[in-house]
From TrEMBL:
Residues 6-181 form the Hydantoinase/oxoprolinase N-terminal domain. Residues 201-489 form the Hydantoinase A/oxoprolinase domain. Transmembrane segments: none annotated. This is N-methylhydaintoinase (ATP-hydrolyzing) A. One of its GO terms (cellular component) is cytosol. One of its GO terms (biological process) is glutathione metabolic process. GO terms for molecular function: 5-oxoprolinase (ATP-hydrolyzing) activity. It comes from Haloferax sulfurifontis ATCC BAA-897. Residues 504-652 form the Acetophenone carboxylase-like C-terminal domain.
Length: 671
């Protein structure tokens, strides 16, 4: 059994979630409203969880954290005033980008404005090719450039020189001089992303520079508050699904862009992988207050990608492959110019929140629709402390009904529920059907404050027969933080034909990558290094990543690539294969979680009218934490807990597992 008391805290758009696990295996969860300064809400959540657990703050041995600081800066265009230094003649790469447009056939479609406007993009005389340095950089020119950057008011600097991924000597000089001359963080592309494709490398480096001051400031405040509480300095969840020391993250801020969603997927994999031997994998479905995140777990491994985009800005660092839609519990329902009902992406946030929160919000939201439909009752207490105003929810939906020409608040609530579900169904299809996976062979893992309310309805629309609702479903991202391993990634471009490949050169590149990743690991002796490679058929534009063994066996790697290509695209070719990038990931595994669960078996609370199959039905309401292991539930039913509510429609049934996980099976036609 683990001897640590662990605490995980995940900040969402509406709530801050906490999971605490004692050495005895007792799991305590908490949910508090998020705050403008996220560190304030984090402290409140830690104090609440420890108080509920009856332990002193000083007893916490490990603190892991996921936040939205960097992604919020990108979504809200609220990052640092950033400058870019690049090779002479390549000042506009960040703005030119790729030929792709937001709307292929709309010649007037606007691209997102570059993070760095042209007036803060500076050129330096230098030149490198893939063969080596042709023109060395002049340090005096860089020092003069530092004055211009300072005069431009830059709070952070990105440096991305041509071919620096292959020959970073000039870039090292530029970054070094700027760090001497400026009182501002400097992000260098060969340190952020040593990978070819100039636009993506420059974009990723600019993102790193853009969010670094916010991350540095936030972690500074959080570390200070943690010290005042007497809890350890936090380790931070990265977008790749692994944690890292706060000091490392402050040097690689771009790695935190999908911190919270990554933690949720890790938590889903930890709790639900063994829920069905006949399943091809798991679709993870996290519906929070602002958005819904969907991802895949296959063969027990979280799906990752290096081809992501946030608010139109490409980011090439490894991250959990998450598809996000703006449909959460707090998403606002509205009527467009064509009189069609829409849901999201605008959200009511934590304050004032949905109308039913009774904090002055008047906009109708998905949560308000669930209240009108009876899935959430007036006696429910979200987060264990927030009572609901049913009349306010009904009034908000009645106003929407008038605007949309619907009969009443119930008709509006039904419409909002269906539109929100349609948005989320499309997101699930995007990670399954559109990638060659049959969703009917997967289980759906539902979590987030609102996910379990919608999960069975989504499963029915996709012919998914198994829905898994973890015990800590309302705070599963926080739970995932308790389980996450430490991970550090490194990549290098090494473009070579796979036939006749110089094995010594490949092994040398891997040795350098392994050294880089182990430098970031807190316990190198406990780390295992995993190798991977990006390959493509010669002439293709994009690559597929395949695992590599302890030594690079070209024939075995080529066979894996053919299999991966056929799985992804439905065919394979006899064309020659090209190695493009080599990758290494250092992993320090944490002890597995050993959670005890006890239900007292006296779970029946009351009944209430809930809407199923076109009519209200008297529906039993259970206290989920009172259902013991082995207990069964037949739909229709509603299971309440502090952080979430599970809706079991008619023709569905559920069984509680030994760890408290609820597995719902079968299905019928519901709302």
């Amino acid at each position: 059994m683990d001897t640590e008391t662990r605490i995980g805290v995940d900040v969402g758009g509406t709530f801050t979630d906490v999971a605490l696990l004692t050495p005895e295996g007792r799991l305590v969860t908490a949910k508090v409203p998020s705050t403008d300064d996220q560190s304030v809400g984090v402290v409140r959540g830690i104090e609440k969880a420890c108080d509920d657990a009856g332990i002193d703050l000083a007893e916490v041995d490990a603190f892991t954290h996921a936040m939205t600081v960097s992604v919020n800066a990108l979504l809200e265009d609220d990052g640092a005033t950033t400058a870019l230094v690049t090779t002479e003649g390549f000042r506009d790469v960040l703005e030119i980008g790729r030929q792709a447009r937001p709307d292929l056939y709309d010649v007037t479609a606007d691209k997102p404005a570059p993070l760095v406007p042209r007036r803060r993009r500076f050129e330096v005389t230098e030149r490198a090719t893939v063969e080596g340095i042709q023109t060395e950089v002049d340090e005096s020119e860089v020092r003069a450039l530092a004055d211009d950057i300072r005069d431009a008011g830059a709070e952070s600097v990105a440096v991305s020189l041509l071919h620096a991924y292959q020959h970073p000597e000039n870039e090292r000089v530029v970054a070094g001089v700027l760090r001497e001359e400026l009182d501002a963080p400097v992000s260098a592309s060969h340190e952020v992303l040593a990978e070819f494709r100039e636009f993506e490398r420059t974009s990723t480096t600019a993102v790193d520079a853009y969010v670094t001051p916010a991350i540095d400031s936030y972690l500074g405040r959080l570390e200070s508050r943690a010290a005042d509480l007497g809890v350890p300095v936090p380790k931070i969840m990265q977008a790749n699904g692994g944690i890292a020391p706060a000091s490392t993250v402050r040097e690689h801020a771009v790695t935190t862009t999908m911190s919270g969603p990554a933690a949720g997927v890790v938590g889903a994999a930890e709790t639900a992988t063994d829920s069905g031997d006949d399943l091809a994998g798991l679709v993870t479905f996290d519906m929070g207050g602002t958005s819904s995140d969907v991802s895949l777990v296959r063969d027990g491994e979280v799906e990752r990608t290096t081809d992501a985009e946030i608010n139109g800005r490409p980011i090439k660092t490894p991250m959990v492959d998450v598809n996000t839609v703006g449909a959460g519990g707090g998403s606002i329902a509205w009527v467009d110019s064509g009189n069609a009902l829409r849901v999201g992406p605008r959200s009511s946030g934590a304050n004032p929140g949905p109308a039913c929160y009774g904090r002055g919000g008047t906009d109708p939201t998905v949560t308000d629709a669930n209240v009108v439909l009876g899935y959430i009752g007036g006696s429910s207490a979200l987060g264990g402390e927030l009572s609901l105003d049913v009349d306010a929810a009904r009034d908000a939906l009645a106003g929407l009904a008038d605007e949309a020409g619907l009969d009443d608040a119930l008709a509006a609530a039904r419409g909002v529920y269906r539109v929100a579900n349609a948005n989320m169904t499309r997101a699930i299809r995007a990670v399954t059907v559109e990638r060659g996976h049959d969703p009917r062979r997967f289980g759906l893992v539902a979590f987030g404050g609102a996910g379990p309310m919608h999960a069975a309805a989504l499963a029915e629309s996709l012919d998914i027969e198994t829905v898994v609702v973890p015990r800590a479903c309302g705070v599963l991202s926080a739970y995932g933080l308790l389980a996450a391993d430490q991970k550090h990634d490194s990549v290098r471009t090494l473009r070579r034909p796979l036939s006749g490949l110089d094995a010594a050169a490949v092994e040398s590149a891997y040795a350098d990558l392994e050294a880089d990743t182990l430098d970031d690991v807190t316990d190198p002796d406990d780390a295992a290094v995993r190798r991977a490679a990006d390959l493509r058929y010669v002439g293709q534009s994009f690559e597929l990543t395949v695992p590599v063994g302890e030594t690079f066996d070209a024939a075995a790697v080529e066979a894996r690539f053919h299999e991966a290509h056929e799985s992804a695209y439905g065919y394979r070719l006899d064309d020659p294969v090209e190695l493009v990038n080599v990758r290494a990931t250092a992993v320090v595994e944490r002890d597995s979680l050993d959670v005890t669960y006890r239900g007292d078996g006296d779970a029946r609370k009351d009944t209430r009218e809930a809407f199923f199959d076109g009519a209200f039905r008297e529906t039993p309401v259970y206290d989920r934490d009172g259902l013991g292991a082995g207990a069964t539930v037949e739909g229709p039913a509603i299971l309440e807990q502090h952080e979430s509510t599970v809706v079991v429609p008619p023709a569905w049934g559920g069984t509680v597992g030994a760890d408290g996980t609820l597995v719902l099976t079968s299905g019928g036609d519901g709302e």
